[in-house]
Amino acid sequence: EWQQHNFAEAFFFLQRQFPNRDGPDLRGFEWRHLWNLTRGNCSTRLPLHPDLVGWLGFSPDSESLATFRWATPDALQIWDVKNRRVRWSLRNATSVGGFSSSGGMFVAGTDDNSIATYDAQTGAQLSSIPQAGEIVAFAPEAQFAVTMDADHVLSVRALQSQRVLMTLTNAARRNFDAGKGAPVAITPNGE
Asked: pLDDT tens across 28-78, in order?
């Protein structure tokens, strides 16, 4: 698999060769050589997540990394990249916007269908828009969020003024294998 550039599959097969707790270690130099080849040239790694991570996003200064997993406790975690530790987490996150362009704010949707903004360093809640729906797109420069509610209405919302700028009815929602997708995108500056 490694020779055909299927690194993930080769890594999977190599992991299966770890010895049992009481069994002998039959791995030789070949195994270790292939193990190093499949590990890549990453400068750092985060600790293993128990589930599939459906979304990753770096802060503009690259000092923080947000990871999001659907339908799990501590679904949203903001990591300190340098120290490889969780800065803060949000248990009730259901959708993600991301970091603002300044990096000072993080936007997420919560299980009560609100959109909330948080201090990106501390996780302190800054504001909330109740019953807005799930975030399907985010414009970090303009600080606009596109949401979809249970009635399949897409709304473009200004986070600071909490006003609805535009709506579109009868939008469709698609569920993919690794999470949720939406038929919408917005430019970073909201234009």
From this structure: 988 888 888 877 666 566 666 667 777 889 999 999 999 988 766 668 999
Q: What is the DSSP string of the chain?
A: -TTTT-HHHHHHHHHTTPPPSSS-----HHHHHHHHHHTTT-S--PPPPSS---EEEE-TTSSEEEEE-TTSTT-EEEEETTTTEEEEEETTEEEEEEE-TTSSEEEEEETTS-EEEEETTT--EEEEETT--EEEEEETTTTEEEEE-TT--EEEEETTT--EEEEE-S---EEETTEEE-S----TT--
0.85 surpassed by pTM = no
Token pair 């949720």: residue: 180
Mean pLDDT of 79-85: 89
What would the two tokens of residue 81 be?
Answer: 């990249």
Task: Name the band, by pLDDT with cuts 50, 70 and 90, for residue 183.
Answer: low
